Amino acid sequence: MIHQASRALFGQRARRRWLHLIVGGALFMPFWMVGSVAMGPLLDEGGLFVGGIGAQFGAYAVGLPLVAVAALFPLARPMSVAAARALCGVPADRFADSPARGWEARARTAGWFSLHLGAGALVSGATLALPPFAVSVMALPFSSALRASELGRFWGLDRPWWDWAALPAGFLMLLALAAVAAATGALLARQAPRLLGPGPSERLAAAERRAAEAESRNRLARELHDSVGHALSAVTLQAGAARRVLDGGAGADLEFVKEALTAIEETTRRTVGELDGVLGLLRRGEEAAEGVGPGLDALEALVRGAGPQVALTVAGDLAAVPEALSREAYRIVQEGLTNAARHAGGEPVTVRLDARTEELEITMENPLPARPPVARPGGGRGLIGVAERARLFGGTAQAGPAAGAWRLAVRVPR
């Protein structure tokens, strides 16, 4: 218990908070001097440092409103937060780092600045004045000069036995100073998050930023999933087909093997380029997010790399599709082909795009395999990503068995 009490009064956190109060007292000095100049003529006392106790507290009372006015400037909050974060022992994420915007945030900052500098001035004054006085009191039993001084007469010269009570009295004075500093520092630490933390509008803005960052991460995850996942599925399919043809022996269709190897080469080259684009986006940051990925102009190469069992039909002018929608439509087709390569068992796949109306329609179908595919542990996120891409433009996506086939249908407004 004694250890806990000593730690609360003299531990590292208590010392830092005490230093924080002394910094507040130092910052209060210019305001106190202005108050002294204002109070001097009123109380008919000269000089900044020779006035009585009434003049000192009068200057203090004049300086506090000036502190509140100075704290209305936006940059007062970042400076206060920097000091409080370093010295108050409050978790850093509970502060608002931006300058105070709006009267509500400025009023809270003014309250904090007034509390910090006002309390700091009192604790700093006590820190400067009380220790020398307490040490002098504790020295009374050992110094005849001190006992003959004004301090000795105040303490009680006519009672010599009482001089020895000065030892514990001086010690208690120092202990009381430490207790007051620790309690005041704890008070400021409790009030710091409320007065220097984000307000409702700032918390809303922070939530919106987090949502935007999460959406950016999700978009990058979709890009990587669709690009790399499709490439691996297509390469696996083409390599498996080439191997089966070569297993046929001397009568193997070498032209088919050549086409499969060419498709593997094109797919991997295209995917490496897409991967470089996504990784470049991660390095550059969010400013390049809107321009990543191929569009529908690369659709034929995508279908060609998926193999001869994929048939593409296009109605309308795909070049008229907006660029952002074109990129998302490409990824939707890519994910559909990836799913077909994984689950269709080599069945033919038809891909139809219709851009003749105000909506872009994407339809992909393949016969249901005779044997249901083995589900991957944890499932996949391909169809979820397709639905997210469609909703991004206000569209819809439906996937499931239909008339003996697996059908993916996406409709997106242009």
From TrEMBL:
UniProt entry keywords in alphabetical sequence: ATP-binding, Kinase, Membrane, Nucleotide-binding, Phosphoprotein, Transferase, Transmembrane, Transmembrane helix, Two-component regulatory system
Domain Signal transduction histidine kinase subgroup 3 dimerisation and phosphoacceptor intervals: 217-285
Keyword Nucleotide-binding applies: yes
GO molecular function: kinase activity
Transmembrane segments annotated in the record for this chain: 21-43, 49-75, 115-144, 164-189
Pfam families: HisKA_3
EC number: 2.7.13.3
Alphabetical list of InterPro entries matching this protein: HATPase_C_sf (IPR036890), Sensor_HK_TwoCompSys (IPR050482), Sig_transdc_His_kin_sub3_dim/P (IPR011712)
Catalytic activity: ATP + protein L-histidine = ADP + protein N-phospho-L-histidine
Organism superkingdom: Bacteria
Protein name per the record: histidine kinase
Organism: Streptomyces exfoliatus
